[in-house]
Design a protein that fits this description.
single chain
Length: 157
């Protein structure tokens, strides 16, 4: 081996040692447990909101209760994002905080807040869908494809 190759190898080893010393150690079990608890708690809160709505206003259909519950969860997530609480929850909850509908609302709100200094049109409005745009596009494309398969191949109407 040449001296240059040895020097590069030693530099990489020193760098890897440095990275290992400054990288926070996390327990996978602890992270999974936190994710499960935060995601589960979000779902329990959503279920409680839906049950309270259904009990308080019995004339609402199940679909309407589900829609109102989703709107409440999204509104609370956006409010928590604006107040800075959602970041604290996300640090502890990991995937459990961004997989429910609240994570989608947080992604939209945080992108909107980050670019508000660029103005209403080119900042807030344009950047609102930079993160969640692919989710919307894929949702539309794949649900349309599933609907066409359902209609044409399986013959279900």
């Amino acid at each position: 081996m040449s001296d240059k190759t040895n020097a590069v190898k030693q530099r990489n080893e020193r760098y890897n040692k440095y990275v290992n010393t400054v990288t926070p150690k996390t327990s996978m079990t602890k992270a999974l447990l936190h994710s499960f608890l935060i995601g589960g708690l979000t779902c329990i809160i959503g279920q409680a909101i839906g049950d309270i709505l259904a009990y308080s206003v019995p004339s609402l259909s199940k679909d309407m209760v589900a829609n109102i519950t989703s709107m409440i969860l999204v509104t609370v997530a956006i409010l928590f994002t604006g107040l800075g609480f959602y970041d604290v929850i996300a640090r502890q909850g990991g995937a459990g905080s961004f997989l429910p509908i609240t994570g989608f609302a947080n992604a939209m709100a945080s992108a909107s807040m980050e670019f508000k200094t660029e103005g209403l049109i080119f900042g807030t409005s344009a950047k609102l869908f930079t993160i969640v745009g692919p989710v919307i596009v894929n949702g539309i494309v794949w649900s349309t494809l599933a609907g066409l398969i359902n209609l044409w191949i399986l013959g279900m109407y």
